[in-house]
């Protein structure tokens, strides 16, 4: 523990709605150790954020120095520790003008929250995903194209010349959870695996006729009742219909743009497979690694002012 305390130069924090993830970083931006807790934004009152962070940082805190802490995610939301104002597109995903210095009471830390990004027309926001985009650009500074960030609320972000120019959010993950757990489709899906052929069929159906998605969804239940369709096929169709609707909506932007997918491996693979149905290839990157790379990029921009 003493070595960890001595060698930790700064701390990277991804603070979401459900989890707090902390990386202890050395002076070369290498990870020394990491911890994760379930003290996400959604579980904390405003005055509980600093104690939760101090508890997670206990192994590296010292009375003889001030430790920089760079945070991203929902910790900067209106319901978070301190609200970090949104920067408006077009903008660099790391906008240091909107970084918030948190007024902490513990003298052993100085904490910063990276801002989210907003879009006025059509209205849209992101908080945390901009740090993943910054992570992609840290690895590929000349990238211009589309970055897909799959999740509960999937983002499709267009990037050019180091700036985020526009983006769209799709509630696909949330809709999937609602339909598979709370709608009539739960009787047909019921926690089944995702059949690959069913998924591809669903994607192709939605891409060809996105206006029929609502009808296709009911067809999942009808197919179960009339055709005795297996649950994994039904689940594949459900995922395919929903992700296919995203692909259909984004198709014009995707036809001439390189695509990067940054997210959890299993979900990213589904999006890559969906894109392949319209002959678009995508490079897949680990979402957590992109978040950390974005936090490193944020620290590199801030460290001269700390």
From TrEMBL:
Alphabetical GO biological process terms: D-galactonate catabolic process
Provenance organism: Marivivens niveibacter
GO molecular function, one term: 2-dehydro-3-deoxygalactonokinase activity
Listed InterPro entries: ATPase_NBD (IPR043129), DGOK (IPR007729), DGOK_C (IPR042257), DGOK_N (IPR042258)
Protein name, per record: 2-keto-3-deoxy-galactonokinase
